[in-house]
Amino acid sequence: MILPIYTYGSPVLRKPTEKIAPDYPELKTLVDNMFETMYHADGVGLAAPQIGLPIRLLVIDLVPFKEQDPELAAFKVAMINPEMLELSEETESCEEGCLSIPGIHESVVRAQRIKIRYYDADFNEHTEVFEGYKARVVQHEYDHLEGNLFTDKVNPLRRQLLKSKLTNIVKGKVRASYKTKNA
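^ that's the sequence the OP posted. Answer follows.
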């Protein structure tokens, strides 16, 4: 089922999320719905707060980038209760966008390598190290679970220049090719 994506200004996007248990109601259906919603919106990642749920769950699928980087061809993951263990001191800057902030893309500095522990949809524990684009997307989605948005990491001068665009999103004056919700 395709769900509406909550946009900038929705309180759920700023709320810290809570861990979920293996018996969370219809967890696998929720994960499937999140992937379907993300694909419908042409995204590569989606966190539960973006569909209105303040829980520690995110999905990522980087298969669309397999032509640019063959290592991304098999990177499809659901992460439950992720915990960031390490962030490298080495950083890189790259342009990012977000399904909850349609029409805005800005350069963001992120750690080049991360170490994260999480559970998959079957509640098997994983501890993994990701680098490059994988690390960037995981950090972006993980930030949603902490109540942070990529615009929080944008240079303060650029953020000031974005203020009117962000205000328009809050007012519901935004165009997206997918169903949005501003609550």
